[in-house]
Amino acid sequence: MKINHFSGGFFFDSSTNKLKELFKVHQKDIAYFEPQKVVIPFDQHIGAPNELIVKVGDFVTKGEIIAKSSADISGHVHTSITGQVIDICDVPALGGGKQTAAVIQHIPSKNHLESLIDENLSSETKVRAAGIVGLGGATFPTHVKLNPADHIDVQTIILNGAECEPFIASDDFLMQKESRKILRGGEIAREILAAKQILIGIEEDKPKAIAAMKNAAIEIDNCHVVCLPVKYPQGGEGQLLETLLRAESPLEGRSVETGAFTINVATAFAIAESVDERKSLTHRYVTICGDVKTPQVICFPLGTQVKDLINYCGGFVGTPSRIIHGGPMMGKSVTDLSLPLTKASNGIIVFNEAHDGKLPESPCIRCNRCVEVCPVRLEPQNIDLAYRSGDLFTCDQLLATACINCGCCTYVCPAKRNLAATITKASSEIKAQKEAQEDGK
Amino acid sequence: MANKISLQTADSPHLFGDSTTREIMKWVLITLLPIILIAGYFFGWYVYLLFLIAIITAQLCEVIWFKLLKKEFTWDLSAIVTAVLMTMNLPPSAPWYFPVIGAVFAIIVVKEFFGGLGYNFLNPALGGRALLVGLFFQDMFKISWPNPPFANYSPDVVTKATPLAQMKTEVLSTAELWENFLGLTGGRIGETCSLLIILAGFVLWRKNIIQLHIPFIILTTVTIGAWFFAGDGGFAPWQTVIGHLLGGGLLLGAVFMATDYASSPSTKVGECCYAFGIGCLIIVFRFWGATNEGVSYAILTMNCATPLIDRILRRRVLGEQATLPLGIKLRR
């Protein structure tokens, strides 16, 4: 299949490629981690907040719902281990804030089997009951996405296995190990949406995953694996649509309006498990890599704390100076090691002082590199300049709100300015201002 | 596990590319070096002195300015690039105070008055030259002829016409065109050797420091313009067209000056308009201007149009409705 290159983007420089080689995960099989205690935050999705339905002292079995909301745009949260709720408290959240979570202590018990989803439900309802959200990081509830407006005719199901963030290998290993189930998830989505074809996009640097997926795709009709160039941010939803279908998702709308339904391979896997095996979303793959003793991809129960996983990997190498939740390009920094991992977690990357490469900022020389690499075709340098001089109006005119926060502009900036950060701030301030204006009316 | 570790909070991304401002400036200087060296070979040791004076003055100006403003000085080589490019625009017979005046004006007025690196709306090197032309019109248009190797200490001033003036009355021979290409012709310090400038442009392009669309559009526009207007009532002979491309600092301007980051537009479409404007203005200045040359004034004029181009043209954002071709959006 002939692919179309998306606009913007860049290839990683040699220093990053060296680091990529250094941080590579070498392992034969996936490790399964079983902690004694999990800390499960109530809200692990974008949408309406959940309400807790268990109380301290309750006994819960793996797969049981512990928090849910009746609102449509929400995702149920289940307990990922069998045990007792020992506390409900505030725990650290990503970005430095607090979130409420249930602390569950593991109690080994032979009598309690995993609680499964009701067999008689429709596929869509099973997906909702399993609490599946977009596992690529967006955490948008999948059952909402599976139910687009009536006028939208979905033709293509795209399974996103690009995994363009360096160092992370969670989807890579998942595709090697669970290729059949991933494709089964794609087929379920195809049945629900009455779509025609399934496309799986994988970056070329994952030959094992490509081989496994190709092998599995032979048995399914109208299902193709497409090799993509290793160009960042290939795994962005908009960029994948541009590459595979030459489609652009409308600026003020959903990507599904282009006639393509895009989900991450991990989400497809979760859909298959929920529909075929009636399992809720309780586990996922995470890559623990960087400066830890034994970097590896681990299947962990949701709510596992960062420190437990790092201990499981043998602890740090050197003194850590920066720990990142997610990929190094879009992930947020972790400041508290008791942070629980959630549905949005696909990687924890540890940089020690030797690998933490932030240089001081210098004046913008207007070299236009950020403009060239911006995949949504913004002018990062001009938005940055306007924001720093307090001119939100110009930021809005330059459509700062369209930023996807991929970090390309910062990466290529020779003046080492964090353009992505200022644009994100500009974008959120503009959105807040607009909301305030609408409330005022 | 050690509990007392200090973890940084930082905004994403957490990875950074290899390029730095200094690296870019370093490569510009590396590509300029052969042109500097050949200038001394052609015009005499004296031109090295001119370069040195300009570099020292420019760097001193910048250091003093940063001291006065109590800003932290960063050693980014940009002042040296400006000084070298400004000196390349001087005649080889320039007295010692030309580079001093030019460098002070370029750094202090054109660059720092507007906010320093990246904020200057004019090309500082050309700004410095423009002032010198205004102050010492006669001396700035004195022509020296190469006398390799390394001539005498200072170059002789001759009253021979430059190829650009020569072409007004006669057609250049192929041998003369070759001399122009290799730099064995009269002109300013850095503009004569077309071969080295083209090589420098190629290296900068390979290093991803400049892109070729600006030089390409300027040269194409000048080619077409020269072909139309240089002949007497008809199309000009090819020798004249080539002569226009090689003569009068066109290549130096197209490769090093027009591609200056700060004074050119932000978007590729904008840069194409800007380059086309430069090309057209060069034609206007060359055929209807007071002197035979006009590359520097063409670039300075279009530098002034850069903010306007940036204000009205922007790219169509991904997912936005298309209204104009080439992915352009007009901004109100």
Structure description:
- The complex is a heterodimer of chains A (441) and B (332).
- With 441 residues, chain A is of the alpha/beta class.
- Chain A folds into 3 domains: 14-28 and 117-277, Rossmann fold, CATH 3.40.50; 37-106, Beta Barrel (OB fold (Dihydrolipoamide Acetyltransferase, E2P)), CATH 2.40.50.100; 369-440, no CATH class.
- Chain A has helices at residues 14-22, 123-129, 142-145, 170-177, 179-193, 207-217, 237-245, 265-276, 306-312, 369-373, 380-388, 392-397, 408-412, 419-440, and strands spanning 31-32, 37-41, 51-52, 59-60, 65-68, 77-78, 83-92, 98-106, 156-161, 197-203, 223-228, 260-264, 283-290, 296-301, 320-325, 332-334, 347-352.
- In chain A, the strands form 4 sheets. Chain A has a 6-stranded mixed sheet, with helices on both faces. A 4-stranded antiparallel sheet of chain A has the order 2-8-7-4, with no helix packed on it.
- In chain A, a hairpin with a 6-residue loop joins strand 15 and strand 16 (332-334).
- Chain A is globular.
- Chain B is mostly helical and 332 residues long.
- Chain B has helices at 21-43, 46-68, 78-88, 97-111, 124-135, 137-140, 163-166, 174-182, 194-206, 213-229, 238-246, 250-257, 268-288, 295-312; strands spanning 143-144, 157-158, 313-315, 328-330.
- In chain B, strands 1-2 form a two-stranded antiparallel ribbon.
- The mean pLDDT of chain B is 87.
- Chain B: The chain crosses the membrane at residues 24-42, 96-114, 126-145, 181-205, 212-230, 236-257, 269-288.
- Chain B: InterPro entries: NqrB/RnfD (IPR004338), RnfD_bac (IPR011303).
- Chain B: One of its GO terms (biological process) is transmembrane transport.
